[in-house]
Design brief:
By secondary structure, this protein is α/β, with parallel strands linked by helices. The protein has one domain: Rossmann fold (3-Layer(aba) Sandwich). It contains five helices and nine strands. It has helices at 4-7, 16-33, 49-57, 109-119, 178-182; strands at 9-14, 39-45, 64-72, 83-87, 97-105, 125-133, 146-150, 156-157, 173-176. The strands form two sheets. Strands 4-3-2-5-6-7 form a six-stranded mixed β-sheet, sandwiched between helices. Helix 2 (16-33) crosses helix 3 (49-57). The two termini are 25 Å apart. Bound molecules: inosinic acid. Inosinic acid is lined by residues 47, 72, 79, 103-111, 155-157, 161.
Length: 185
């Protein structure tokens, strides 16, 4: 059924071209800030996969990459607040300059959990880059050091972001139609 996935999109927020331009800019800025230090990119899967793939290629410096998996309990479109580790890092981060790569910060609970966890492992420094920031949802005083785009209070999909594991492969970021997750009004 061609087009079915796109039919669930209410509105496109960022086109592939806009995403590429912004991610390239971010990568260059971060690379400049880390000049002389080798960042270790700790990527939160799965939502950050397209973002890290583009971001790291826009960073023309020596870096390394690892993946961490977290899940918040419960389904739906809001975070339950209870987070657990689903995949741990492969390598030690002790003494390293860690850059956490996140897809979206909403309540901030996922990021708060990850930062708490990573700081116990004695990294030299920890910074955060998020592709999207939804400040309206914030329950904790937590901010990213680098933000791709700030978005309004809407549930978005695409460029890695899912709803029930779907839509991650959309090349743009769009708002999911409400009736897809809430049923007809
Ligand atoms: P937080 O813990 O509320 O900050 O939520 C962070 C996680 O919830 C993200 O890593 C996403 O997996 C998911 N999330 C939050 N908002 C959205 C959204 O609008 N679309 C898709 N996933 C979202």
């Amino acid at each position: 059924m061609a087009g079915a996935m796109h039919d669930d999109v209410e509105e496109i927020l960022f086109t592939p071209e806009q995403i590429q331009a912004r991610v390239a800019e971010l990568g260059q800025q971060i690379a400049a800030d880390y000049a002389g230090r080798e960042p270790h990119l700790v990527t939160i899967v799965k939502g950050s996969i397209p973002f890290i793939a583009d971001l790291m290629r826009a960073m023309d410096i020596t870096l390394s990459l690892d993946l961490i998996g977290v899940a918040s309990y419960g389904a739906g479109t809001t975070s339950s607040g209870e987070v657990r580790l689903t995949k741990d890092l492969d390598d030690s981060i002790e003494g390293r300059h860690v850059l956490v790569v996140e897809d979206i910060i909403d309540t901030g609970l996922t990021l708060a959990y990850v930062l708490r966890n990573l700081r116990q492992r004695a990294p030299a420094s920890v910074r955060v880059v998020t592709f999207l920031d939804k400040p309206s949802g914030r329950g904790t005083a937590i901010e990213a050091d680098y933000v791709g785009f700030t978005i309004p209070d809407a549930f978005v999909i695409g460029y890695g972001l899912d709803w029930n594991q779907r839509y991650r492969n959309l090349p743009y970021v769009g708002i999911l139609k409400r009736d897809v997750y809430a049923g007809p009004l």
